[in-house]
Every structure is written in structure tokens, then in C-alpha cells.
């Protein structure tokens, strides 16, 4: 078990990727703490994986500081931090942004970039004190390829890429590594619904849209949550002991950086 004896914290732990990460890390021997804004979701993950559930708003400095203290008090150390908060996107063209939307745009960037910074700020000192640790930030293919209507999500995730490079340089001398995993599309009901909507708009079938989309990927398949989680596991484990400041793209060859 590649995480035997390690303590892992997952922020933004939702019912999708966050749940899969918690299960996989627990299966690989880690003791896991999950943090997000929705207590019910966290309790469900905790019941399934044995994780410690800590309701947390990642954009609230006091809440994140309390998360760090709670985990360290319970387990005595922190070895892995995975920042997986998914801010979503509200899909608006810049010419259509009103005052209400601009506030939402800022909220998305705050969750992605500021939330990641806060988690690193308050959990990394425990890693520095013990002389080792791994931080894995979940970014996105969208941080490297801009699309109309997704400037909020793209800007937030792109900020995390460069933030990670800065933190890798700052924390490296203390034995702490910082890397990114950048998913493309992830197989899910949400993705299927989007493909179905496109099919309806074009007067074609879901199967045709799916075939067309996957044909544009070198591996001809869409990544699963498990695929993404295993990439995170690589950076979390000692298998990547001399890797820091890296971005691992997991998109089936949909986009080459």
C-alpha cells in the first residue's frame, strides 16, 4: 500500500472525484480527512471510507486554519494535501456580464485560486516542520485552453498552475513537493447530460456526439474519476519523490500542452 502510514487531507471533497480520492487513498493505507462546505456530503464519504469529516469553506482563512489544526491534533502529522475544490462555471461572454455575474466570476476564482492558497498556507507549515510532504492541486485542461463563456473557471485554474510553481520553489528546500494534475473531461452523468443536450440541439444522437468527441482524443476514451485519482496518487506517494512543480495532464490525449 503506497500511502501506508500517511495522513492525507482532501479539500473540496465532493460526491464525485473527492469521494473516489478518499476511497483510493484509504485503500492504499492512508488515514484521510475530507473538507468541503456541505456536511451531508462529507458524512457520506466518511461513512464509506472511514475518513475524518471537517466541514470547511476553503475561502475562509479561519475555517482553513481550523481544518489544519483539527487534522494535526487528531493524527499528529499531515503528509498529503489534495486541493480538489471544483468551483464550477457560469458560462457568460464578457460582453454579457452584469454586476451580479461579476460577483459570481470572482467567487469562482476565489474558490479555485484563493482557496488553494489558503489550504497551502495553513497546512504546509506542518509539513515543513516534519521535513516532508506532498501537495497535489487539481487544475484543468481549461487552464491551458480558453473557451468562450468559461473565463471564470479557466482563470481560477490557470492561477493555480503558476501558484503551484511558486510554492514548489518556496517549499522545496523544506522537503515539500507541489504538483498539479490537470484533468480533461471526466466521465460522469453531468458530461452525458451535456452531450445529450448538444445532440438534441444538432438533431443527432448521443452516440454520434460521443463518438465524435472521443475521436478527437488520442486514446479514444474519456478519463474516469479513478483515472484522475490514480494520477493524484502518483504525486502523493514516494514514487514521485524527486518531482515537484510538474503538471500531469490526464485527458486521454484530448489536448497536448
UniProtKB/TrEMBL annotation:
<keyword id="KW-0560">Oxidoreductase</keyword>
<comment type="similarity">
    <text>Belongs to the short-chain dehydrogenases/reductases (SDR) family.</text>
</comment>
<dbReference type="InterPro" id="IPR002347">
    <property type="entry name" value="SDR_fam"/>
</dbReference>
<dbReference type="Pfam" id="PF13561">
    <property type="entry name" value="adh_short_C2"/>
</dbReference>
<dbReference type="InterPro" id="IPR020904">
    <property type="entry name" value="Sc_DH/Rdtase_CS"/>
</dbReference>
<protein>
    <submittedName>
        <fullName>3-oxoacyl-[acyl-carrier protein] reductase</fullName>
    </submittedName>
</protein>
<dbReference type="GO" id="GO:0016491">
    <property type="term" value="F:oxidoreductase activity"/>
</dbReference>
<dbReference type="InterPro" id="IPR036291">
    <property type="entry name" value="NAD(P)-bd_dom_sf"/>
</dbReference>
